[in-house]
């Protein structure tokens, strides 16, 4: 098929490989290998990437010598240098054999060709703070302190693009995701407003949605609360279309996301107790331990069932329909990023204090879940006949390729999420392999496991770079066919679109793979490509938020229910998680010219009801010995010299002999520095 007459918008991302002042034009080489000559003219403008603050960061120096007086050529000479990374919004014309590409907007990422504004120390902190402030302003207006009644009265799950409520419904899992975001904002900024909001949100979640078993051992979280003219009622089973009238495991998992992140900050034992009860629920109702429960009708093949029938509390009930006796990515893999890593970071090494023995037992359970879920992903999800993982299975681990919308299709973000999280798990295996409390045999197993996880993560990262990422425009695609039938490497199930949360997975996957491989710059280049697309096209600068979906060229999709600030699939979670971890990963993995730029701070606020005598302060799973603690303050007083020996013990700091504040809390600030690698 030849296009004889076609004019359309085209976004191109790549490196400048040539400049022609006579035409005038510049040439951009995309990662696809295509070279686009972009003609510039009087309607071409150059723009430095801006953050949500919309501040002008253009500090590109004027070239030496006098200006020619031709503004088009003077701007081209000033802004274009060979090897500079740019994104161009332009128009491509094709008429018979003639083709022409005209640049309209030329986006720059740094004032010097080898600099990137999004790698500055404050970039992600600013984005996180502005999003947090806007969420709180929309929900609670002028309030700066928060109580449980504020969340009861004002919190709504579904918000339109301006932040106004679309319904009266409150969903537990999305509330928890917002709490995660607010807790993450406090961890990175120490702003008390975010802590107060997270604290009130946790109190409301526990009061409004928690359902305890008769013996107090198990906790289930209700789907939500609905208000109408008849009053307010609690809704137990999910109302989401894929899971309607069931209790899906992923909603229970995400009910812990906020609680786990809040517990890291506060060491609040009441919150930990609810987390433990919920994990008991996972283990007693959804877990399919290998060969242990076959007599109870379970398959005994490992992993977790995806759904329970609320009437029978069984995963194999006929009432579940096509969700009966299934396992999927969400029921296995979502444990890891949603709560498990954050929980293990808080518990390993075992905190000092009266509850040490019980916390040790709980840590073993959490480590067991991490070991099993990561191993199952590595063993069962990869498909030698496809570039993409399988995502849905029977309880015998046979892939399901005819389920509703999924069919034999891949969500690109899930492949990248696996690459990101298996790399994190590899770091944790490496750390445990250094622990002399383990046998030599166990340490050897952990090292091999780390190598297996990292190799799988790299394979996925490499595959997605070829078939899941846009090699011309940048960004991560959405839903594609696992077995293309169009004689192309990629076939889209629906449109050629890009969703916000999948950009997060790509950014974090490639940043952490860069950190794992150290000298392989291809992952850093892929991360920068994804980060550029995110910051250019997904930030809703006018409303300090993010767009859910864009077209391939980066235009926001605002029809079909995608112009939401809040909803079942969007809340204060993925974008906040991106800001939180992109800041940590950039500071830890991306070398800067200024040594101090590879430092960062993490903030904690231990409550007055915690009896723990120590706090674990490592912010994520990192390669062993990569980070060192440079400074420790308690309530503003420097305790660095007194606490350094303890800090070197797996980043655990004693807090038992430190005076508390007037309200009984203890503010802990820890500054980290990356060691030379």
Could you write a compact summary of the structure shown?
This protein is of the alpha+beta class.
Essential attributes:
about 20% strand; 5-stranded mixed beta barrel; alpha+beta; 4-stranded antiparallel sheet; about 40% helix
Explain the layout of strands and helices.
Elements: E1 5-20, E2 25-30, E3 35-39, E4 45-48, H1 71-79, E5 85-95, E6 98-108, H2 123-140, H3 148-154, E7 159-160, E8 170-171, H4 172-189, H5 192-208, E9 210-212, E10 219-221, E11 224-228, E12 231-235, E13 247-248, H6 249-254, H7 257-266, H8 269-286, E14 307-308, E15 326-328, H9 329-333, H10 335-347, H11 356-381, E16 392-394, E17 409-411, H12 412-433, H13 440-467, E18 479-481, E19 497-499, H14 500-517, H15 521-538, E20 539-540, E21 545-546, E22 549-551, E23 564-566, H16 574-589, E24 599-606, E25 614-616, E26 627-634, E27 637-638, H17 640-647, E28 652-654, E29 666-674
Parallel strand pairs: 3-6, 4-6
Antiparallel strand pairs: 1-2, 1-5, 2-3, 5-6, 7-23, 8-11, 9-10, 11-12, 13-14, 15-16, 17-18, 19-22, 20-21, 24-29, 25-28, 26-27, 26-29
Helix pairs in contact: 2-4, 2-16, 3-5, 4-5, 4-7, 4-16, 7-8, 7-10, 10-11, 12-13, 12-14, 13-14, 14-15, 14-16
Structural write-up:
It is built from 17 helices and 29 strands. β26 and β27 (637-638) form a beta hairpin. By secondary structure, it is an alpha+beta fold. The relative contact order is 0.10. The termini are far apart. The strands form eleven sheets. It has a five-stranded mixed β-barrel with strand order 1-2-3-6-5. The chain has a four-stranded antiparallel β-sheet with strand order 24-29-26-27. Strands 8-11-12 form a three-stranded antiparallel β-sheet. The mean pLDDT is 95. α10 (335-347) packs antiparallel against α11 (356-381) and α12 packs antiparallel against α13.
């Amino acid at each position: 098929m030849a296009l004889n007459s076609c004019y359309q918008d085209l976004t191109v991302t790549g490196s400048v490989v040539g400049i022609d002042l006579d035409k005038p034009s510049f040439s951009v080489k995309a990662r696809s290998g295509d070279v686009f000559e972009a003609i510039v003219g009087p309607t071409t403008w150059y723009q430095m990437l801006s953050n949500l603050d919309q501040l002008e960061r253009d500090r590109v120096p004027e070239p030496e010598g006098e200006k020619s007086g031709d503004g088009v050529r003077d701007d081209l000479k000033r802004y274009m240098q060979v090897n500079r990374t740019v994104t161009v919004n332009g128009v491509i014309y094709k008429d018979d054999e003639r083709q022409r590409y005209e640049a309209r907007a030329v986006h720059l990422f740094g004032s010097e060709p080898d600099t990137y504004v999004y790698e500055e120390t404050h970039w992600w902190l600013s984005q996180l703070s502005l999003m947090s402030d806007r969420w709180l302003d929309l929900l609670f207006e002028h309030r700066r302190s928060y109580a449980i009644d504020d969340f009861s009265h004002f919190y709504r799950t579904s918000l339109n693009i301006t932040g106004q409520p679309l319904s009266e419904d409150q969903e537990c899992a999305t509330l928890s995701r917002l709490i995660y975001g607010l807790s993450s904002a406090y961890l990175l900024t120490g702003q008390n407003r975010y802590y107060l909001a997270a604290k009130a949100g946790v109190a409301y979640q526990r009061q409004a949605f928690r359902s305890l078993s008769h013996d107090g051992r198990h906790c289930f979280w209700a789907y939500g609360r609905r208000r109408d003219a008849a009053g307010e009622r609690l809704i137990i089973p999910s109302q989401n279309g894929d899971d309607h009238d069931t209790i899906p495991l992923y909603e229970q998992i995400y009910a812990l996301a906020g609680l786990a992140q809040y517990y890291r900050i506060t060491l609040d034992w009441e919150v930990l107790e609810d987390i433990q009860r919920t994990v008991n629920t996972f283990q007693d109702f959804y877990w399919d331990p290998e060969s242990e429960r076959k007599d109870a009708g379970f398959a005994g093949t490992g992993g977790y069932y995806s759904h329970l029938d609320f009437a029978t509390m069984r995963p194999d009930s006929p009432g579940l329909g096509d969700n009966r006796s299934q396992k999927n990515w969400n029921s296995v893999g979502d444990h890891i990023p949603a709560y498990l890593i954050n929980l293990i970071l808080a518990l390993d090494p075992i905190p000092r204090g009266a509850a040490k023995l019980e916390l040790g037992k709980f840590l073993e359970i959490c480590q067991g879940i991490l070991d099993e879920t990561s191993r199952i992903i590595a063993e069962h999800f990869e498909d030698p006949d496809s570039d993409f993982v399988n995502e849905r299975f029977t309880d015998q681990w046979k892939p399901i390729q005819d389920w509703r919308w999924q069919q034999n299709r891949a969500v690109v973000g899930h492949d990248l999420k696996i690459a990101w999280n298996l790399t994190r798990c590899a770091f944790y295996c490496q750390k445990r392999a250094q622990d002399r409390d383990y046998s030599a045999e166990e340490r050897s197993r952990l090292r091999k496991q780390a190598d297996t996880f990292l190799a799988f993560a790299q394979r996925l990262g490499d595959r997605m770079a070829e078939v899941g990422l846009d090699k011309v425009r940048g960004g991560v695609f959405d839903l594609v066919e696992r077995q293309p039938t169009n004689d192309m490497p990629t076939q889209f199930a629906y449109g050629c679109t890009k969703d916000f949360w999948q950009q997060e997975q790509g950014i974090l996957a490639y940043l952490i793979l860069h950190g794992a491989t150290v000298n392989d710059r291809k992952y850093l280049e892929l991360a920068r490509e994804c980060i550029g697309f995110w910051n250019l096209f997904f930030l809703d600068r006018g409303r300090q938020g993010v767009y859910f979906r864009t077209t391939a060229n980066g235009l926001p999709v605002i029809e079909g229910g995608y112009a939401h600030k809040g909803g079942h699939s969007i809340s204060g979670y993925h974008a906040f998680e991106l800001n939180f971890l992109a800041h940590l990963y950039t500071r830890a993995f991306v070398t800067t010219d200024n040594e101090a730029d590879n430092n960062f701070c993490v903030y904690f606020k231990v409550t007055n009801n915690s009896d723990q005598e120590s706090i674990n302060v490592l912010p994520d799973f990192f390669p062993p010995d990569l980070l060192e603690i440079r400074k420790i303050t308690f309530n503003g007083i420097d305790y660095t010299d007194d606490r350094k020996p303890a800090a070197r013990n797996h980043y655990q700091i004693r807090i038992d002999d430190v005076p508390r504040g007037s309200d009984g809390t203890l503010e802990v600030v820890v500054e980290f520095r990356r060691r030379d690698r």
